């Protein structure tokens, strides 16, 4: 495998000159630059990214820690983060924590060893001290862990209010809200707060069902929905905290012989691509997933460049009505 010394020798220049070409630093004539790149191509020279990052004191790599890469919201988010980061000259290291604090800590240590320029925290464990003690720029998604660390969230309270009002205004007399585990202290809990407020105001019968601590474990959704309709056959409205949970509600309604939206009306949250593809298509609260991804990268870059930034970044939501209501 060719080394930087081999490139310098064949191009008849110094190692320092090759390094300057690689890192785009200092004055290098166009003729010398072209010659060095031609030799690199001839020798199939692959620069050592770690060595280059040590020279630049910047790796041009951002770490993204998410709880479950198979969950449509996080897979779509990761896609947008990667696309925008790449456009800005950054690569992405994707870490799938599976809501395991030990695994998440290991990933944090790995990101530190690889000298990433920043970390986007999309995970949802109860352990946050590891993030507070990092010196790298950090951005959190749907969670506020410090007044100094910027966070991004959709307007969860408005989203919960929109969903609750629509179900009530459609005439639902008993509404179930399926949410994540409220012990996690996520900003998404505001959806539940808004739902409860609307139900109380409109005097509508309702119940709240929480998932277990691994809120993105899809294996639990079907039993939850099956038990709901068995124990509460008079439920005529469902507000699910994700489109995936809403899809399981649709499936269980079919199994129970309930017509949608005649017998049961269903609203999800996120507006992932699958929400519009299944039959019946799911009414949902649309999060601006692409904008969340772009904003996360932008906030990392602002911190890297010592530019001013807002610690609180609440993005608007909208209701998208489809066949389930």
From TrEMBL:
Keywords: DNA-binding, Repressor, Transcription, Transcription regulation. Residues 2-56 form the HTH lacI-type domain. It comes from the Bacteria. Pfam families: LacI, Peripla_BP_3. One of its GO terms (molecular function) is transcription cis-regulatory region binding. CDD domains: HTH_LacI, PBP1_Qymf-like. SMART domains: HTH_LACI. InterPro entries: HTH_LacI, LacI/GalR-like_sensor, Lambda_DNA-bd_dom_sf, Peripla_BP_I. PROSITE patterns: HTH_LACI_1 (PS00356), HTH_LACI_2 (PS50932). PANTHER family: LACI-RELATED TRANSCRIPTIONAL REPRESSOR, RIBOSE OPERON REPRESSOR. This is LacI family DNA-binding transcriptional regulator. It comes from Paenibacillus arenilitoris.
